[in-house]
């Protein structure tokens, strides 16, 4: 028997397929920028974004974590919107981790997960 405040799990859409697809799309775009267009954040954004952030390097996982934290208080009031935002936030986090600790570590030899420019 279901709890009165809890929706039937059989009717809830799964979020993991969305997170996996989102992660792959974001990572493909990130790899296109890095390897296709030869962009490097340390070299190409330090003089612009680096100045705005006072030298703090903003990884897309930070933005994803902020989105996930913003979803928490709204998940019961706006479940559909929260679900999509959770997918976006988790995809940003996973993509950044994969990009630094798998892709860059393997192909460049250094994860380049710097906190400062």
Structural description of this entry:
The chain crosses the membrane at residues 15-37, 58-75, 81-108. Keywords: Membrane, Transmembrane, Transmembrane helix. It contains 5 helices and no strands. It is mainly α and 117 residues long. It has a domain at 40-117. It is globular and about 45 Å long. It starts with 15 loop residues before the first helix and ends in a 10-residue tail after the last helix. The mean pLDDT is 90.
List the helices and strands and how they pair.
Blueprint: H1 16-36, H2 41-45, H3 49-52, H4 60-71, H5 79-107
Helix pairs in contact: 1-5, 4-5
Keywords: Membrane, Transmembrane, Transmembrane helix
Transmembrane segments: 15-37, 58-75, 81-108
Task: Considering the chains and any ligands shown, give keywords for the structure.
117 residues, mainly alpha, transmembrane helix, transmembrane, membrane
Strand content: under 5%
Helices, by number, come to: 5
| Gross geometry | globular
Question: How helical, in percent, are the residues?
Answer: 55-70%
Mean pLDDT: 90
Strand tally? 0
Keywords: Membrane, Transmembrane, Transmembrane helix
Transmembrane segments: 15-37, 58-75, 81-108
């Amino acid at each position: 028997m279901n709890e009165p405040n809890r929706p039937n799990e059989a009717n809830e859409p799964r979020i993991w397929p969305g997170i996996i697809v989102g992660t792959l799309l974001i990572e493909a775009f990130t790899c296109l920028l890095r390897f296709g267009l030869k962009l490097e954040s340390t070299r190409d954004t330090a003089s612009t974004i680096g100045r705005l952030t006072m030298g703090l390097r903003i990884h897309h996982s930070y933005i994803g974590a902020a989105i996930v934290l913003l979803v928490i208080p709204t998940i019961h009031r706006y479940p559909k919107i929260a679900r999509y935002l959770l997918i976006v936030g988790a995809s940003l986090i996973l993509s950044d981790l994969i990009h630094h600790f798998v892709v860059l570590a393997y192909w460049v030899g250094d994860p380049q997960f710097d906190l400062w420019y």
